[in-house]
């Protein structure tokens, strides 16, 4: 195997996973971040991100001498043994959604400004962050160097399984107008034996949006189908199982829910819509995907209203509700664009009194005490306490522990025995046995 000297700028979720995993493939990796305190913690092996296996991998690769951390991109240039410079520079800095749904590229620009001129001839600059089509070309322009190539190498990691996804990818995508540079980047991953798509930069950049928007569309479709199931008396679990056996559709990503969220799908759907708008293309399917998702949150509120008041227009004023799960999905402590929080805001607007419980926030981080509220939702230390006096219990995140809660104890704590399970994860028979009425999404006989 050919080990390379790799510099990774940005030690967020993508950068840290990339750095640690590339080191585990045998490369010499120096990771840079502008946050001094964070670098200091990483040097001590403290990883702030909740990601299975990541802290262990960071510790293992650091002590093996293949992974190190420095403050600032400039320092990373000189961070390699024997004073040699990086052969590959991975840009893993944030590209948040700016005004009008356009990704904000200031962080990419500032790294180029800082180290662009000092890169060794022949270095390959790799864009790993999700970026608008044309960013590789823009990066090359900013670099103003003909001896440094720019490559787009989007990541397809899921939060909660990032290390596993990195080391066992469905595919590697490398796009560049410089074939030799693209092949050098692809070679970094050779040991993984994954299918590799070598393409031009614009196609690689678009591919990331295309994948996330397709996934979002799949989910909006399932959520709409669940609503239709309710209206015609069908069952969404059976329908998705049946269609999922068709290999062209697949079983994955077919669970209905309170709407898709997180830091990626919402950002990327809006960004692709923006790309389409600028290209004078009316992407109606994508707009409908987003609208269906926005509507899904209101649909959950309507369901709660009907379940609690018996009327579509009933009042939720001063109605106490327990919210189980606040993160955007299970296995993470990430609250960004969480459907649970969007639903909480709508419920609060409707006058409801909320108490939340989420297993990700039972303990505080870094020696601090556990939070007492999130986004204005007061937190209880366990599900039973959250359910105390509630007129309905809402399951909003698919944490596996919710399946096996002591539902009889919850039934004894609530004021009214209603469970609105927006993830369809709790066995309705278990709820019934505990004396609770289950309301799911598109489930037979559960309106
Ligand atoms: C997503 C993509 O799945 C990754 O491939 C991609 O690399 C990543 O974005 C990114 O762009 O960085 P992630 O945001 O971690 O990953 O979350 P997902 O697991 O995709 O879930 C997204 C949302 O869909 C969550 O709110 C989740 O609860 C929801 N979901 C997912 C469902 O409602 N039903 C499902 O069957 C699956």
Written description of the protein model:
This protein is α/β, with parallel strands linked by helices. The chain folds into two domains: 5-198, NAD(P)-binding Rossmann-like Domain (Rossmann fold, 3-Layer(aba) Sandwich); 200-447, NAD(P)-binding Rossmann-like Domain (Rossmann fold, 3-Layer(aba) Sandwich). 40% of the residues lie in helices and 14% in strands. The protein has 16 helices and 15 strands. The protein has a six-stranded parallel beta sheet, with helices on both faces. A five-stranded parallel beta sheet has the order 10-9-13-14-15. α9 (201-232) packs parallel to α12 (284-309). The longest helix is centred in the middle third of the chain and has 32 residues, at 201-232. The relative contact order is 0.09. The mean pLDDT is 94. InterPro entries: 6-PGluconate_DH-like_C_sf, NAD(P)-bd_dom_sf, UDP-Glc/GDP-Man, UDP-Glc/GDP-Man_DH_C, UDP-Glc/GDP-Man_DH_C_sf, UDP-Glc/GDP-Man_DH_dimer, UDP-Glc/GDP-Man_DH_N, UDPglc_DH_bac. Its EC number is 1.1.1.22.
Question: What's this model, at a glance?
Answer:
By secondary structure, this protein is an alpha/beta fold. 40% of the residues lie in helices and 14% in strands.
Q: Could you give the distance between the termini?
A: 58 Å
CATH architecture of the largest domain: 3-Layer(aba) Sandwich
* Strands in their spatial order, largest beta sheet: 3-2-1-4-5-6
Coarse structural class: alpha/beta
Low-confidence stretches: none
From the spread of the alpha carbons, the general shape counts as: globular
The portion of residues assigned to helices is 40-55%
Number of helices: 16
Instruction: List the ions, cofactors and other small molecules found in this model.
Output: uridine-5'-diphosphate-glucuronic acid
Q: Give the mean pLDDT.
A: 94
CATH top level assignment of the largest domain: Alpha Beta
Number of domains: 2
Q: What is the CATH superfamily label of the largest domain?
A: NAD(P)-binding Rossmann-like Domain
